[in-house]
Amino acid sequence: MRSRSLAAPRALRGRLPKKTKYALLGAAGVGTVLAFYLVGRKRRAIRRAVHVSMSARERRRIGQLAPDVRAAYEAFLYAAAARGIRIFTGRTQGTIAKTAAHNKAGRSDVHVSWHDLTPPRGIDIQVYSPTTGRRISSPKTRAEIALYRKVLRLAEKYGFRQIAFHKDGSRRFLSSGAWDAYHIEHRGPYRGIQVAARATGVKYA
Questions:
Q1: pLDDT of 78 over the 70 cut
Q2: Is the preceding peptide bond at 139 cis, omega within 30 degrees of 0?
Q3: DSSP string covering 139-190, please?
Q4: Which pLDDT value is given to residue 43?
């Protein structure tokens, strides 16, 4: 005995009527446009929220950055905000004298920093606590350290280099034993600070 075919009845075979086809295509098109509109609207809302939450000093610091660094940093800020994380923008432009003072105090292992370039390519950031809403100026607890690790890993996705954690997630300390959880740098076309310093007219000791 032959098994019955599961094919669709002849009346349902073939192409859809043009009116039905156009209606379906139109509905799909409207749905796609609406989805893009909602996504775009959410992105604009996030960007507005990021800029509104910034102080004038933070905006000025971001404005000091090299154009490619500024674009990458703003994209990083928006991505963090989309995850419910707020970032404080600290020092961007530095000086060789200040870097030398930091080196002497054990707060830096370099004599010329990515902050010292003009325009600068280094940024010191701090993360706001999701529970208290205050800046975590010195991450100590497991939760705070994990939050900084998450933020710095996100920064790496936007081309930044961080010096706070090893690849395995363990903390990376300076030669003095201090822990710099705040510094990120965007090297761009430069292989190292010596090359960048010469290219931007900064004397490298």
A1: yes
A2: no
A3: --SHHHHHHHHHHHHHHHTTT-EESSB-TTS-B---TTS----SEEE--TT-
A4: 83
β partners of residue 85: none
pTM: 0.79
* Fold adopted by 54-199: Muramoyl-pentapeptide Carboxypeptidase; domain 2 (3.30.1380)
Predicted confidence (pLDDT) per residue in 111-123, tens digit: 899 999 999 999 9
Q: Which two tokens stand for residue 103?
A: 């080196």
What's 132's DSSP letter? Answer: T
Neighbours of 85 (CB within 10 A): 16
In 3-state terms, the chain is what percent helix, strand and coil (to 5)? 45, 10, 45
CA–CA gap between residue 51 and residue 165 (Å, rounded): 28
Q: What confidence tens digit (pLDDT) does each residue in 122-163 have?
A: 999 999 999 999 999 999 999 999 999 999 999 999 999 999
- CA-to-CA separations, 97 to 112, 163, 168, 178, in angstroms, rounded: 9, 21, 34, 20
Query: Which of 57, 48, 115 is CA-nearest to residue 88?
Result: 57
Phi/psi for 10 (5° steps) reads -55, -35
Distance CA(130)–CA(150), nearest Å, equals 13
Over residues 172-188, the pLDDT tens digits come to 999 999 999 999 999 99
